[in-house]
Amino acid sequence: MSFLFYLFRYPLYQLGNPQLRIFRPTFNLALVRPGKEQPPDTVQFRIPMEMTKFDVRNYLEKIYSVPVAAVRTRIQYYKNKKKNFIPYICEQL
Q1: In Å, how far are 20, 27, 35, 53, 79 from 50, measured between CA atoms?
Q2: 41-59 residue pLDDT tens
Q3: How far is it, in rounded angstroms, from Cα 93 to Cα 91?
Q4: Which InterPro entries match (predicted)?
Q5: Residue 65: is it exposed, middle or buried by C-beta count within 10 angstroms (0-12/13-18/19+)?
């Protein structure tokens, strides 16, 4: 290992020492507008497939301090359509 690794190595956590690390989640939540009218206390997010209901609840409660009443998830499939599709003719000689 290089000399810089040992020079700038992060100190080990010991009981009583201040916590210097900040643990951030690797997931991203995207707040989206719902397609239909929703009650004012309901929000809709676009989340990764790896996130569970428990992960969503913890994410909102621990990071944003938002009380969560219920979490409902669904998988929405999209049609595989090419946008701006231009048909072409393939000729064989």
Answers
A1: 28, 9, 24, 10, 21
A2: 999 999 999 999 999 999 9
A3: 7
A4: Nucleotide-bd_a/b_plait_sf, Ribosomal_uL23-like, Ribosomal_uL23/eL15/eS24_sf
A5: exposed
User: Which letter does DSSP use for residue 19 in this model?
Assistant: P
Domains of the chain: 22-74 (3.30.70.330)
C-alpha dihedral sign at 9, 10, 11, 13 = negative
Q: In this predicted structure, what is the pLDDT of residue 43?
A: 92
Spatial CB neighbours of 25, under 8 Å, sequence gap ≥ 6: 59, 63
Range with top average pLDDT, 2-6, 67-71, 82-86: 67-71
- Whether the predicted pLDDT of 93 surpasses 50: no
Residue type, position 18, single letter: P
